[in-house]
Specification:
The protein is of the alpha/beta class. Helix content is 50%, strand content 13%.
Length: 303
């Protein structure tokens, strides 16, 4: 699809106005993906805003969002297309009833394996929609290598071959956004077809700006406390470090509780909103660094 933005700065400002604060590297990658009509591969820890970016771009471009959620064992029928078996059976029964005696079975078979009986799934839908959508292929690292091989033709040429019907080519190239949480390595052949961006946890200043915009009810003291506590958590050897999604959930919950600042008691009551594993909770309770942070909170400071 045509890039409606004249510069990276214009795109970054538009994302900013929509509530998504992208760093310069990420804004540049999105701008180039639009300009060069290349897929965009976003990699990073869970909860840093990879999936959200596809949703925001769908809104800004005024294009539908087509989402394919990946999982182990996903196959052609789930990702690309299937056949409408119910309609095929109706056609076969009608052919048996209405066609003259001696009708050839191969003619009936050719009829039922035509475009009229296709059941598009997300990949084929993205190729055939007009105008082209934003296509989100989410958590591609959860799929297996066989599915990656399926994506190679699709992302390389934005086309798909169905043996019974022929080749479908996109009249307008969709903006394809692939995400990965790095649960496994994605093959080089797939990466080569995409522009790449690493999406990291936001630095404290950017996180503060995001939380202030998304949670305007937070006072400055509470906002500072959340940002500093989250920064400490991300610097600890947790199995699941909190992403931006968790810090937003925590901030919104604290605002809903009417908190004015973080206290050790309030942290203890709400810690499950931001730390999701028992082992991580146990690590925090045994951590001197975390205990010192809570003590500073109890004295009215955040670190």
């Amino acid at each position: 699809m045509k890039n409606p933005y004249r510069s990276v700065g214009e795109l970054a400002d538009t994302l900013d106005a929509a509530g998504y604060l992208a760093d310069p590297a990420l804004a540049t990658a999105v701008f180039l993906a639009l300009s060069l009509e290349r897929p965009l591969f976003l990699e990073g820890q869970p909860g840093v805003g990879k999936t959200a970016l596809a949703g925001v771009m769908s809104q800004l471009l005024n294009r539908p969002l087509v989402r394919l959620q990946c999982y182990y064992g996903i196959d052609l029928k789930s990702a690309a297309y299937d056949w409408n078996y119910a309609r095929q059976m109706v056609h076969i029964r009608l052919a048996e009833t209405l066609t003259p005696a001696g009708a050839r079975p191969e003619d009936v078979e050719r009829d039922v394996y035509s475009r009229d009986y296709l059941a598009p799934r997300p990949l084929l839908t993205a190729l055939t929609m007009n105008p082209a959508p934003v296509l989100l292929i989410d958590e591609v690292d959860r799929a297996d290598e066989a599915f990656e091989a399926l994506l190679l033709e699709f992302l390389g040429e934005f086309q798909m071959t169905i043996p019974e019907v022929g080749t479908f080519r996109a009249e307008e190239i969709p903006l394809a956004v692939l995400t990965s949480n790095r649960t496994r390595d994605v093959h080089d052949a797939l990466r080569r077809r995409c522009l790449y961006a690493w999406v990291d946890f936001p630095d404290p200043d950017r996180e503060r700006a995001i939380l202030a915009r998304r949670c305007p009810a937070l006072g400055d003291d509470l906002l500072d406390g959340v940002v500093k506590a989250v920064a400490v958590l991300r610097d600890m050897p947790l199995a699941k470090r909190p992403g931006l999604a968790e810090s937003l959930d925590w901030a919104q919950a604290l605002a809903r509780l009417g908190a004015e600042r973080l206290t050790p008691e309030l942290v203890e009551r709400t810690l499950g909103l931001i730390v999701k594993y028992y082992d991580d909770l146990d690590l925090l309770r045994r951590s001197d660094r975390w205990r010192l942070l809570l003590e500073r909170m109890g004295r009215g400071g955040h670190g």
